[in-house]
Amino acid sequence: xxxxxxxxxxxxxxxxxxxxxxxxxxxxxxxxxxxxxxxxxxxxxxxxxxxxxxxxxxxxxxxxxxxxxxxxxxxxxxxxxxxxxxxxxxxxxxxxxxxxxxxxxxxxxxxxx
Amino acid sequence: xxxxxxxxxxxxxxxxxxxxxxxxxxxxxxxxxxxxxxxxxxxxxxxxxxxxxxxxxxxxxxxxxxxxxxxxxxxxxxxxxxxxxxxxxxxxxxxxxxxxxxxxxxxxxxxx
Lengths: 113, 112
What we know:
- The complex is a heterodimer.
- Chain A is mainly β.
- Chain A has no helices and eleven strands.
- Chain A has strands spanning about 5, 10, 20-25, 35-40, 45-50, 60, 70-75, 80-85, 90-100, 100-105, 105-110.
- In chain A, strands 2, 4, 5, 6, 9, 10 and 11 form a seven-stranded mixed sheet that branches.
- Chain A is globular.
- The model of chain A has no long low-confidence stretch (mean pLDDT about 95).
- The termini of chain B are far apart.
- Chain B has no helices and eleven strands.
- Chain B is globular.
- Helices cover about 0% and strands about 50% of the residues of chain B.
- The interface of A and B includes residues 45, 46, 61, 62 and 103 of A.
C-alpha cells in the first residue's frame, strides 16, 4: 500500500524552528520528485517546495526562500522540510506529495506566542 | 510565477445537474516537451487533495467518468456531468509546467 506519513508538526513560537518529516512506503521513492504543499486554516492550497529525485534541484515559493530547506534521504525513503524563522503566516497543515496523486494526511504547524 | 485564476469561486448545484469550473493561466501551460501539465484536484472536507484529472483531460485511476477535463493553452475547464452528493468539496486547478507549481484559488462546490 502506498503511504506518505508526515510528522513533526506542532506549536512553535514566532522565530522558532521545526523539522517536518514525510515517510514514504509502497513505491520507489527515489524515482520521484517530491513536494511540500501547505494549507492555512480555511484557505486554499499553496505549493511550498519541491526536490528532484537525487536532490540536485530544489525550488521554493518566494515567501519561504532563505527560511525553509527541503531535503530527502532516499536510503530512508524520507522527505524533510526544515523550517526556520517561523512566522504566524506559516501556520498551516503541511502535506507531502508525490506525482500529485500520492498525498499524506498532513501535519499541522501552528506558529503562535 | 504562473497565476491560475478559477471561476466561479463558489458553485451551488442541484443534485443530478451538471457543473463546470473554469481555470485560466497567466501564460501558456504548454511545456517544451509538448505536454500541458494542467491538473484538477478535489478536496473533500477534512481530507487531503485527490487527483482527478492530469494533463488537461486524463482521468486518474478510479475517478468516475462523470468528471471530464478540456482546454488548451491558457484556458481549461472541469465538468461534472451529473453532480452527486459525494462531489461536495473544493476543486483546484494546478499547473506543473513550471517547476514552481501554482494552484488556483479553489472553487467550492455545494449542493443547492
